Amino acid sequence: MVVSSTRIFGYRNNPIRILARSPSAFAVCFCSILYLFWYLPTANVKHELKSAWSDAPRRLIVFGDSWSDNGRYPIEVPPKTLVPVKEEAQGLVWTEWLCLAIKCNHHDNFARSLPSAPTTDLKGAVIDGAVLNRTLGADHGQTTALSDLKTQVRQWLRFEKKQYMTSRTREKERRGTVFTVWFSLWDIWYYSQLDGDAASKAVTQSMDTLFAQLEIIADNWPPGAKIILPEAMDPTFLPGWSMKRTGPAGSDHRADDQRNAIGLVNQWNMELDQRASDWQKGQIYIYNTNDWMLDQVREAQLVVGAMADHNGLGHSGTPWDSVHSACVGVVASDYVSPAKKDKTLGPPRCSYPDKFLFWDDMHLGPAAHQMIGQGIAQDIAESHRDSWFAHEQAEESKDLQPAAEAAKKPSVS
């Protein structure tokens, strides 16, 4: 059992910030500065990531909601009307970036979501649909078409039995497999409407379900299952929160739901950390996505105010043009008609999606997904490869041993 709760992210280690913190280095010639502080760190990071992830068989198995769903399913494909349509400009989801970074052979997606429908109530997958129904009641409007975590795990078990269990060639890949489980967005979205006791109870019951399902995964996998659990992210930062809750047309003008949501995020992450530290059936890696989100918003605000904090946030600018508005639906000087750009009708889009923290009211933008996926891969490569993929290193050493022994033998003339 290994638990890692990351607080420092790969995107922070950039050569621009290193240069900004070393003014005395300008005594050296400008070309040397560029070489030492720009080219070499960049080259080293690329080399470390490349060398950390070998070509050993590796697989990513994904459970989650609309933030993890890439719209491609290995089993029990939903009807077309229930499959989300992803635009090219929306980019890859974070698990696809993670898969590319760790050089996985297969990306098996069991996460589920619905097509975006801005004119209807926002809906999404939760950890436990039964808890949701008991807590909110049968008239809350949650669709039964979405698979919760329990359903996704059952689908995965059926897929394993069908595709992998009888294949000897897959044994190495099974040892190099990484699971990702990311729920919380829609759970907290729903439960924040309730009073404190009912909402808190629902979060605890959701945690019970989460770790019960992790037990099932571990019991059906070789010892030492490797699982990535991103923490809950504060949904009140989402553009959809203002639209549906605290904005002029929202239902939470007193911000009661907002206070509830922030408290539930804290409870969710505390229970997740505590339970993960006690879990003994595998290795859990926890990524602090809430701190990551706070840093994005805080850095943008510091840049606007021409300030920087003691950690350097704000010193080197921000990658975002907006951390409040979504790319979809934006009405600004960079408006592009979707009929002209994407040959489809719909809400307006921004010209540069990578410059927006959010794609639409409820989802991260393409650059944000890339930061999270690559950040997780880099952190695991730097801190956990020895424990997570020791078998690969052992096999590499075993493969090199005959050549080493041959090199030791004296030559016969």
Description:
The protein has 413 residues and is an alpha/beta fold. A six-stranded parallel beta sheet has the order 1-6-5-4-2-3, sandwiched between helices. Strands 7-8-9 form a three-stranded mixed beta sheet. A hairpin with a 2-residue loop joins strand 8 and strand 9. Helix 3 packs parallel to helix 13 and helix 8 runs parallel beside helix 10. The N terminus is likely disordered.
Strand order of the largest sheet: 1-6-5-4-2-3
Gyration radius, in Å: 23 Å
| Share of helical residues | 40-55%
The secondary structure category is alpha/beta
- Total beta strands: 9
Question: How widely separated are the two ends?
Answer: 54 Å
**Overall outline:** globular
Binned strand content: 5-15%
Overall mean pLDDT score?
76
Give a short account of the largest sheet: 6 strands, parallel
Compressed to H and E, one letter per element, the order equals: EHHEHEHHHEHHEHHEHEHEEHHH
Number of helices: 15
Q: Could you name the ranges where pLDDT drops below 50 across 5 or more consecutive residues? A: 2-52, 332-343
List the helices and strands and how they pair.
Layout: E1 3-6, H1 15-20, H2 30-52, E2 59-64, H3 94-101, E3 106-109, H4 129-136, H5 149-163, H6 171-175, E4 177-182, H7 185-191, H8 196-219, E5 225-230, H9 239-246, H10 256-278, E6 282-287, H11 289-304, E7 322-326, H12 338-341, E8 356-360, E9 363-364, H13 366-383, H14 385-388, H15 390-408
Parallel strand pairs: 1-6, 2-3, 2-4, 4-5, 5-6, 7-8
Antiparallel strand pairs: 8-9
